[in-house]
């Protein structure tokens, strides 16, 4: 079945993370009084790593009982991550841009999705000069739930007028990305090993790839 839409995660899939999430998390949790020496820090950090790919405000709500603190931590996280990106600490996964340009040249639509806030997503796209690289960029908010809910994929399908969810391919580096793609009904749900996810985290994927560079071959087999 010919693929009409490829939905690509950003950090860890098309954009190298290089520890930026952990650095931003440390700043965020410090903003609500939890230092690296705090007994709670290691457990909180583990939860952040285990929930990579999910909406960050949802993660902070799970870590902090107080909604005000969760919002404060989330704002601090997005601010710290954005500063790192604007400071030049953001690089593309090798070959990702060529893959995206090749897909679009062949008539396949491409959507970027993320667990970050819209402003952070735009900061990443601007830092890489990718604002016009894909057909669409989506982030959680305005009634669109983050991963592992299927909303981001289904919203992309609606906005880009996909004829059948089975003609969608979803690519990400975490279990949340994979679950999101499965719940959305995509035929190809590929996990990549360039980010937070290990092979054992991606068992529900239809394919496990060393990198997004291998995606065109998978889509060729799926025709």
From TrEMBL:
Pfam families per record: Hydrolase (PF00702)
Gene3D superfamilies membership: HAD superfamily/HAD-like
InterPro entries tied to this protein: HAD-like_hydrolase_sf, HAD-like_sf, HAD_sf, PhnX-like
Protein name per UniProt: Phosphonatase-like hydrolase
């Amino acid at each position: 079945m010919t693929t009409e839409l490829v939905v690509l995660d950003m950090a860890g899939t098309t954009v190298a993370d290089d520890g930026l999430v952990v650095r931003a998390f440390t700043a965020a949790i410090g903003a609500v009084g939890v230092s690296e020496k705090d007994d709670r820090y290691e457990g909180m950090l583990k939860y952040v790593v285990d929930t990579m790919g999910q909406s960050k405000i949802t993660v902070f709500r799970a870590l902090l009982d107080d909604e005000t603190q969760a919002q404060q931590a989330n704002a601090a996280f997005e601010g710290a991550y954005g500063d790192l990106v604007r400071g030049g600490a953001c690089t593309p996964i090798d070959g990702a841009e060529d893959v995206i340009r090749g897909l679009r040249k062949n008539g396949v639509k491409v959507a970027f999705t993320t667990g970050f806030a819209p402003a952070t997503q735009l900061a990443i796209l601007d830092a890489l000069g990718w604002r016009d690289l894909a057909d669409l960029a989506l982030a959680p908010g305005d009634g669109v739930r983050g991963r592992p809910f299927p909303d981001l994929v289904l919203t992309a399908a609606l906005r880009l007028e996909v004829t059948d969810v089975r003609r969608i391919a979803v690519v990400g580096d975490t279990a949340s990305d994979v679950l999101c793609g499965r719940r959305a009904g995509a035929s190809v749900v590929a996990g990549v090993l360039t980010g937070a996810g290990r092979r054992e985290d991606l068992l529900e994927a239809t394919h496990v790839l060393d990198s997004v560079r291998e995606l065109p071959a998978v889509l060729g087999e799926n025709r």
